[in-house]
Amino acid sequence: MRYGIFSDVHSNLEAFEAVIEALKIERIDNYLCIGDIVGYAADPKECIKKTKQLSPIIVCGNHDWASVGLTDIKYFNPVAEEALIWTSRVLDREEEYFLRSLKLVYTSDKFILVHGTLDMPEKFDYLLDTSSAYRTFNLMKVPLCFVGHSHVPLIFIEEDGRVNYLFESEIKIEQGKRYIVNVGSVGQPRDSDPRATYCIFDTEERRIQIKRTSYNVERAKEKIIKAGLPKFLAERLSIGR
Ligand code: ZN
Prior knowledge:
Blueprint: E1 2-6, H1 13-24, E2 30-33, H2 44-54, E3 57-58, H3 62-66, H4 78-90, H5 93-100, E4 105-107, E5 112-114, H6 130-139, E6 144-147, E7 154-159, E8 162-166, E9 170-172, E10 178-182, E11 196-202, E12 207-213, H7 217-226, H8 231-239
Helix pairs in contact: 7-8
Zinc ion (ZN) is lined by residues 8, 10, 36, 61, 63, 149, 151.
């Protein structure tokens, strides 16, 4: 089985289409979405539509929930808050219902999906260091968990109770080790590489790859400006910050 995994699309249709194209040639059997389909950029409706077409297994992100009033927008910075208010205005009832129905955690016999962390997933904390990785490892019933939220691809590995992290773009899953994989962001990368990020998990080869693809950043920026969204949300796309 080959999974195509994506997270943090954030209404960036240009980036999302580029990732969908890239995944088309990867012989993907099933798609997984780690949340934050909407928020920040100018195409929430199209990004929801494209996500539904892929029919992935999905968990919700903080922006998905906040845009339909399930998370209080006071927890967001002013720029994110402005984009959330804009997003909630353009969504129709069906799109709202779709976002509202997304669950916090998905667990199968092979992997777990959660946007932030497994301890208090509803708080949407960032999994950025080994101590927060420990808390999630402690709650994992299977050896592999995919996360998003920070927009920075990163892999935590636990072996004999010790946790390390790698910024590798490819790893082999080994017996006796456990993994938390942050798959990065499609629509707003923050690791200084502006290219859209996605992930492939091949269960037979036991291999996980983090991949990048270029997309039409200028067009995504123009749409953000034209929609009247904060200028900063356009500017950051060019620098991957
Ligand atoms: Zn996000």
